[in-house]
Design brief:
By secondary structure, this protein is α/β, with parallel strands linked by helices. Helices cover 36% and strands 16% of the residues. Helix 2 crosses helix 3.
């Protein structure tokens, strides 16, 4: 069972991002503040859920959360500041969207750039330990999938509706055949180097 609080009695926001390892598209983060009475036995790390479960849970999170925010950092920005900084920036932008200022931030992962003077706790595999981080992972993943589905309609050769920009075999094969699009991250290794 995932925990609702890191520390009881204070307003905590869970934060997570999606799309860090992708070759194309933005990195997207979610920030979620859940009510102290929130319960959901299905909610977990978005990677452990089916697509149908993620979208059903997104509706629940949007309806039942005290506040939620979405942060998006484009592939051009990723190329300028690198993916680690882009992930932190996406989380900062998601926190910016919250209607209530949290007293603490629960961050999925082991590193984070401080957000103003709000204390934060980095939690490895936090999306499978805390409900608010799991909720943020669902928000980040589903909205990012929506973006990839949408931009993929203009670039059907890359199968973004299925691979969502991740470095799958068919995605790399499409880059080799059709070249790079305006949505690709030019600072990433888009094609595996030929073995000498």
């Amino acid at each position: 069972m995932l925990q609702l609080f890191h520390k009881k009695g204070i307003v905590e926001a869970g934060c997570d991002e999606a799309g860090r390892g992708c070759l194309a598209g933005p990195v997207v983060a979610g920030a979620v503040i859940l009510p102290p009475t929130f319960q959901n036995s299905t909610l977990n790390d978005s990677k452990k859920l089916t697509e149908k479960q993620r979208y059903q849970l997104r509706d629940v999170i949007i309806k039942e959360s005290i506040s939620w925010g979405l942060g998006i950092v484009s592939n051009e920005e990723i190329d300028q500041i690198n993916i680690l900084n882009a992930s932190f920036l996406a989380m900062h932008r998601a926190i910016d969207e919250l209607k209530i200022k949290p007293a603490a931030l629960l961050i999925d992962g082991n590193r984070f750039n401080p957000y103003y003077n709000i204390q934060h706790h980095c939690i490895i595999k936090g999306d499978s330990k805390f409900l608010s981080i799991a909720a943020a992972s669902v928000i980040a993943k589903t909205f990012r999938d929506d973006i990839m589905q949408s931009i993929g309609e203009d670039f059907p050769n890359y199968n973004w509706d299925k691979n969502k920009g991740y470095p799958t075999k068919n995605h790399r094969a499409a880059i080799a055949k059709y070249g790079v699009t305006s949505h690709h991250r030019k600072s990433f290794t888009l094609l595996k180097k030929e073995a000498k």
